[in-house]
Amino acid sequence: MTMEASLEHAQAENRRLKETIAALREQLETCHHDKAESLQLARSQRDAEFRHLKDTIVSLRAELENAAFASEDRLERERTERREERRHLQGTIAALRDTLERKLADAGRP
Questions:
Q1: 3 state SS for the chain
Q2: What whole-number distance in Å separates Cα of residue 4 and Cα of residue 20?
Q3: Phi and psi dihedrals of 4, rounded to 5?
Q4: N or C: which end of the chain has fewer CB within 10 A?
Q5: Neighbours of 92 (CB within 10 A)
């Protein structure tokens, strides 16, 4: 091989190596870019799931508090109704007792 042929061969080999390096560099950059996109997507999905779970917790907590308030209100209404019914029954009992005592007192008079 002549010196010129060797030089051309070396230059051609040099070009092929530079092209290979450029192609590998591009593949590596694409790989890094794809990995960064995958990480960003995973973070975005994680954050969306976190927000959804947080919203669910807030909603369930509010629902539980509302249920507790409703239950307490219902119990208080029932207590009030029982007190009123007891007062009414006590009034009825007192009125019947008075009526009975009057009838007994009238029956005992000549």
A1: CCHHHHHHHHHHHHHHHHHHHHHHHHHHHHHHHHHHHHHHHHHHHHHHHHHHHHHHHHHHHHHHHHHHHHHHHHHHHHHHHHHHHHHHHHHHHHHHHHHHHHHHHHHHCC
A2: 24
A3: -65, -45
A4: C
A5: 10
Span 76-108, pLDDT tens digits = 999 999 999 999 999 999 999 999 999 988 887
In this structure, the chain runs to a length of 110
> What are the backbone angles phi and psi of residue 2, rounded to the nearest 5°?
-85, 170
> Residue 6 in contact with residue 14, Cβ under 8 Å?
no
pTM across the whole model: 0.56
Please tell me the distance from the alpha carbon of residue 23 to that of residue 67, in angstroms, as a whole number: 65
